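Researcher: Next sequence.
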Amino acid sequence: VQFHMVQQNTHALLEQLEDGQLDFALIEGNFERSRYAHQPFYLSRFVGLCRPGSPFAAFRCLKDTLGAPLILREKGSGTRDIFEGECRSHNLSVEDYAELCEIEHLPTLLGLVAAGKGITFAYEAAARSLLARGLVQIMELEDLQLERPFHFVCLPDSPRAELLVQLAAAVREAACNCSQ
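Model: Next structure:
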């Protein structure tokens, strides 16, 4: 077995899976579940993040965050899709924010938040190391209480289906070991 790992947004990963460029994908965003074989492998909270001690840390609901500069993943990203869906459920939009900056590279995005340049919304797992070092903090928003699964996704008729199921189990075990 040979591995080649790529990091792309959800839309691009699913497209590459469909085109036969990938055997499987680890997806954190929304996807058409009836179209793919899938297994959840990791559960993480979806949270608002800011620099510790910033005025943004005092926000208590999603509407409060509208005055802050929003640093968000690009369109097609699962993280962005989930955040935009949450905004819609509160009759809000990313266009309602005072400022919007789109960044494709998650470490860069989180670095900007740690530098106090704005806020973001992402999985707690993605910011684990920055949270542990006290470089970012979670904004405890009363109306944003999401916990979402990451999924192992492949095409249902994959010729390597049995191997992919074994890989999914190994990925799930590795993810659980990383979170401890």
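Model: The longest helix spans residues 161-178. The mean pLDDT is 89.
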